[in-house]
Amino acid sequence: MASDPSLSSPPPLSSTATAMAKPQNLPPLCLSSRTSKPWLARKCRLKPDHLTDTLIFTGGAMAALLLIYAIYSLCNPTAITTTSFSEVKPQNPNPPLAHDCHHPKLQNPFSTIPTFYDDPNLSYRVEKPIKNWDQNRRQWMEQNPSLSLNSEEKVLLVTGSQAKPCRNPVGDHLLLRFFKNKVDYCRLHGYDIFYNTLLFQPKMFTFWSKIPTVKAAMLAHPEVEWVYWVDSDAAFTDMEFKLPLQKYRDHNLIVHGWDHLVYQNRSWTSLNAGIFLIRNCQWSMDFMEVWASFGPQSPNYEEAGKTQTSVLSDRLFSASDDQSALVYLLLTERDKWGDKIFLENSYYFEGYWVEIIGTYENITRRYEDMEKAQPILRRRKPEKLAMKFGELREPYLKEAGNGRFSWRRPFVTHFTGCQPCSGDHNKIYSGENCWKGMERALNFADNQVLRNFGFVHEDLSDSASVKPLPFDFPASVG
């Protein structure tokens, strides 16, 4: 019968090991609960007391250092992370210490200090005039300095659509994609956005609804300098382009238009009122009050339409509309309003979709050629830095031009006359051309966003699929 290995004699031990193996000299943890073989205890080693104390002290010190590191990381995350792949140096080579970490102190929202919001006579309704808005807004900003930082650069984009589902079967889907496009643009540029689906003045329907909405938005957001109305059927198609606000420092209302078409041709299409930038100030409150007086809530609505038709040379319909009213005010009250209204035509502040949608592929090729020649432009980057890299592109776009016949991306593509929700498009277009054109424009814009996530639509007519981009695109694809 073979001997049981577990019962065989243990290997010989040195005298020191033999002494350590004696059960009476071992601490309890060195004894196995499953065996009585004392020689297994040779794997245990007794530690001197001072060594145990040292280990405890070292562990505590390391825990304290980790805690300090964590606090420092929260206060100054950019100072912790570096990469050998980046040639960009940190903006602040001497980051603040942990004790310098602070946040702007917000005004107590329950403060008893009165503001214009506490005035019982304040009304958000378009029929009620707003007075002393510049003074009231300034006082509010002084009381809320943390919300008023860089206020001259703050923009609130306002848009909207009807409250009920669209009659056009693809209308709700298209409006969702148009809204996503605006959200993408606002996220990239740090703008706030408000999407309204209601009539703040029930009688001011369709295109008239923008005026009550913009007025209410100004009151709700005194911290912003500009309110940017963009029709629901308009898409941003140059996601890098930033509004040149400094250019408009002496003006309060910016619309796409041409002086000679307004003042010489007296045309109702001399400008487009579907997209405008308006300053949050008393002048704007006064102007919108007059502008709204041509609307359907006014007892003079029918007469206003006849007056507009008599003054504007190419107007063929009778009902008063917001765009004709704006042209009419420029013609008849130019001394009062004209100096503060800027007719922008140096770039596609809003571009006519028919002349744009066929240019997207050529524009894409020109931009890719530019990036092949300039490695910095094709470098991968986080979305938060995308706009900074966009600024680097400007010197290479000097020869591109702006507007029609340019190979620069059009800032806004506006699908005037298409009516994506109702489907009641202008008869000079086909519905198919409108919907396909919208899909192309939205995918063209979406590619500029998706690029930061490593994907693009390969075909602008295919909204459902994307392809991954290889490293160093487009240089890596020939």
Automatic annotation (TrEMBL):
Indicate how the chain sits in the lipid bilayer: Single-pass type II membrane protein
Segments of this protein annotated with the region Disordered? 1-20
Keywords for the protein's UniProt record, in alphabetical order? Glycoprotein, Glycosyltransferase, Golgi apparatus, Membrane, Signal-anchor, Transferase, Transmembrane, Transmembrane helix
Q: Which family is this protein grouped under?
A: Belongs to the glycosyltransferase 34 family.
GO CC annotation terms, alphabetical: Golgi membrane
Source organism phylogeny: Eukaryota, Viridiplantae, Streptophyta, Embryophyta, Tracheophyta
Where is the protein situated, by its record's location annotation?
Golgi apparatus membrane
The name of this protein is Glycosyltransferase 7
**Pfam families (UniProt xref):** Glyco_transf_34
The entry lists its GO molecular-function terms as: galactosyltransferase activity
Organism listed in the record: Amborella trichopoda
Principal location class: Golgi
